[in-house]
Amino acid sequence: MKILIADDDPLQRELLVGFLEKQGYQVVAAADGHEALAQFQRHPIALALLDHRMPGLTGDQVLAQMKAANPLLRAMLITAYGAVETAVQVMKLGADDFIEKPVDLKQLLGKIEQLMQRHAVATDVAAVTHTVTNTAATAPQPLDLIGDSPAMRETLSLVRRLADSPWTVLIQGETGTGKEVMAQLIHQLSPVASAPFVAVNCAAIPDNLFESELFGHEKGAFTSAERQHRGCFERANGGTLFLDEVGELPAALQSKLLRALQEKHIRRVGSERDIAIDVRVIAATNRDLRALAAAGQFREDLFFRLKVLDLTVPPLRERRADIPALIQHFLTRDARRPIQLAPETLDLLVRYDYPGNVRELEHIIQRSVTLARGLVLQPHDLPEEIRHPAAAASTGDLQTQLDTLERDLLLAALEKSEWIQTRAAEQLGISERVLRYKLGKYGLRRPAG
Ligand SMILES: Nc1ncnc2c1ncn2[C@@H]1O[C@H](COP(=O)(O)OP(=O)(O)OP(=O)(O)O)[C@@H](O)[C@H]1O
């Protein structure tokens, strides 16, 4: 795969071509928009580096045509210094990034390496999806997955190997590490990529709707069942069902899920008829499911049935090398204006431990960008816990503090309701099942006597 450079300034063009060839890239050049399109048709292009202002067709016109022909193409615009509004506009058109003139070659190389790596992952996904869906009307969309650290490379290599088989996969990892993103990638790389991917968060379904949500119901099966409903299993038929937070499934449903997986059929609530299903199940949890099984809170046979194959997504603090690329990704994805980072800001962000992992980083960037006063993020634009991690650490990390608070609230509600669980659950506004689960989690028991 090659890099295309389109620039009408011969000096700059030659400089960029020479520089990138020296870095080992294969490069093709064009002197204007029309030639750029001709080169694009002639060569396999992974990344287009387009001057925004060219005679004839401008960079953004060329970009729009190329992206329409190949959505997997990565593109970067070269803009005039300070042309902030133009840059924002071209990013809306689908450019992944931009760089200002005069081009800083070191910065350019960093951006190119990142985009080429994203292109490699996206093409990997698309290569497989193409073979299965080459009759589909729409081109596959790239999955934005950042990660070039050794830990992520290992994870991605395992994902590629897992994807081919039909077995259930159990994805484990702390909250926000990207378990759902991995499940989507497994699906996209699998032979059933053109079939549906249905995701359901088991922690978010009210107790009384669980069975109907998973298996569906017939009209009139219960009071509010005004019409027939197809459950997640049926909707995912032929494809992949992603059961997030599987550790939260109530015991009765665990047995039904196990039966569905073993017998490969389900029955809608209120129906007498079995429906055959052919679904690959991927489950995820941020709990220690083995420990839950050992403690009798999760069916052991279901645990083993789910973890035929398993994948652990490493926490972000164990792959800090990915942090700069993730930041860049979130900045360019959400930017309404082109924001950059002061070196000290990046330094603080790379050092922080992220108990909430990639999701926390994503929120920190969104928040800081919204509140930032200038176009360069300074340390004072970052939240307190990142600027002064030692102060936050002295009272425990965010998760520990939240756990302590939750435990105290549970204890207070239980004492107030004289340890009658129904009453305590009602007072806390949670179901009894969730209350029992939390009592187990914090080892809370009614005091003897
Ligand atoms: N490698 C990655 N590249 C880009 N974005 C990522 C990556 N990993 C995670 N994200 C983003 O981080 C957020 C959290 O990811 P995701 O929902 O997959 O995590 P999770 O482990 O399933 O979380 P939870 O345990 O809370 O269910 C999402 O917005 C996702 O797009």
In short:
The chain is an alpha/beta fold.
Overall description:
The chain has 449 residues and is α/β, with parallel strands linked by helices. It folds into four domains: 2-122, 3-Layer(aba) Sandwich (Rossmann fold), CATH 3.40.50; 150-312, P-loop containing nucleotide triphosphate hydrolases (Rossmann fold); 316-394, Helicase, Ruva Protein, domain 3; 398-442, Arc Repressor Mutant, subunit A. Helix content is 48%, strand content 13%. The protein is built from 20 helices and 14 strands. The strands form four sheets. It has a five-stranded parallel sheet with strand order 2-1-3-4-5, with helices on both faces. Helix 6 crosses helix 7, helix 18 packs across helix 19 (421-428) and helix 19 packs across helix 20 (432-442). Mean pLDDT is 84; it is low at 125-141. The structure holds adenosine-5'-triphosphate. The site of adenosine-5'-triphosphate has 19 residues, from helix 7 and helix 15. Adenosine-5'-triphosphate (ATP) binds at residues 144-147, 173, 175-181, 244, 284, 286, 329, 358-359, 362.
